[in-house]
Amino acid sequence: xxxxxxxxxxxxxxxxxxxxxxxxxxxxxxxxxxxxxxxxxxxxxxxxxxxxxxxxxxxxxxxxxxxxxxxxxxxxxxxxxxxxxxxxxxxxxxxxxxxxxxxxxxxxxxxxxxxxxxxxxxxxxxxxxxxxxxxxxxxxxxxxxxxxxxxxxxxxxxxxxxxxxxxxxxxxxxxxxxxxxxxxxxxxxxxxxxxxxxxxxxxxxxxxxxxxxxxxxxxxxxxxxxxxxxxxxxxxxxxxxxxxxxxxxxxxxxxxxxxxxxxxxxxxxxxxxxxxxxxxxxxxxxxxxxxxxxxxxxxxxxxxxxxxxxxxxxxxxxxxxxxxxxxxxxxxxxxxxxxxxxxxxxxxxxxxxxxxxxxxxxxxxxxxxxxxxxxxxxxxxxxxxxxxxxxxxxxxxxxxxxxxxxxxxxxxxxxxxxxxxxxxxxxxxxxxxxxxxxxxxxxxxxxxxxxxx
Length: 453
Ligand SMILES: Nc1ncnc2c1ncn2[C@@H]1O[C@H](COP(=O)(O)OS(=O)(=O)O)[C@@H](OP(=O)(O)O)[C@H]1O
Prior knowledge:
Elements: H1 4-24, H2 48-91, H3 112-127, E1 135-138, E2 141-144, E3 148-152, H4 158-165, H5 189-194, E4 210-212, H6 222-230, E5 234-239, H7 242-259, H8 269-302, H9 317-325, H10 328-335, H11 337-341, H12 361-368, E6 377-381, H13 382-387, H14 389-400, H15 423-444
Parallel strand pairs: 3-4, 3-5, 5-6
Antiparallel strand pairs: 1-2
Helix pairs in contact: 1-2
3'-phosphate-adenosine-5'-phosphate sulfate binds next to helix 4, helix 7 and helix 13.
């Protein structure tokens, strides 16, 4: 009588023979034997109908072998269950009985299609990304653009975040943190933009691409351009207590002007913020007057009181006063109709401009919401970076759909040492940002716990 060992050896021999059979009767793969015109291939010179007949025969043989294999496996399994009990008695060992289902489940041996499907699934998994595909074909290669973009704000830890994300194994390297494509170099085109990032020639094992330009958030051209180019990109926005952010920008500006051999700033922080507050007020007020006057003019034209071809002049004393100063950010503001509507002065990227305006977060985000939904903007509270850097990074990783990385020790980046501001200035600024902060907390349904009182 056959014992378990014999059955297993026999089964092994049979399986080996069957595997050999499979190897020589592999399933027909479209494209391997025929071309699109249906003509014959190779040295055998077989025609297509003969090939199809052969394929049918092989499939039938294959099915027959598969059936035999299943019944053989079934009897081996049963013998193993029964024989197992005997072995337990022979060896006087306690061994748990195997709970085998009498109906065999499909395995690789019994179903080569299953093996193929699993291999395919594995391959698809490798190329699957929970990220928008931001690659386009160009000159026979893939041109890949960012999947995520840190859009601001200036002086809120963007260098820190970018530095550590660049250490993540699933993030591609860039040749610089701030590319300024959407605010300043848009005309250079996407090839120029893509050249700043490590590129790939296949979707397999592709990394995520990202950059961090803090001036994107406050430039009125950026959101529409970004929407037109990368409307599915994941956006990241860091926000710092607006009062502290403004002071940090001032000190950074002093340093920047020196480093770039520019004339030093003539004014104190207090002087600049007072002046900017006046400009913002004027700018917004000036635009309101302009709109009112323009509406009146249109009515007068309709009533036939004014010749529509005559010029429409609005002499606003505030407007004139600030225009004469030729401030870049005032000119930007004049050009940006949408900014006026939001009551916000969008400022140029120059570090000395917009110490207040860049801290009016609600107004800036409100503008972006015309292009991107809030769910597409991951917001980080700057103050959490120093207290919980691991948490901040792991939340970013979750948002980007990448693994949690061990970054080692965290160190602050881009630090500009400076003194604290005076109490009077602080209370002016706290007051100045109160309304905007309130609206921000409501919009994001989140209390940033900045010094509001
Ligand atoms: N880990 C950590 N903890 C606390 N603070 C940190 C950290 N890393 C960077 N920083 C501070 O972030 C400020 C620089 O921000 P940015 O890199 O966004 O500046 S920039 O806009 O790119 O110039 C700058 O703030 P100031 O020093 O007040 O100017 C940095 O000191």
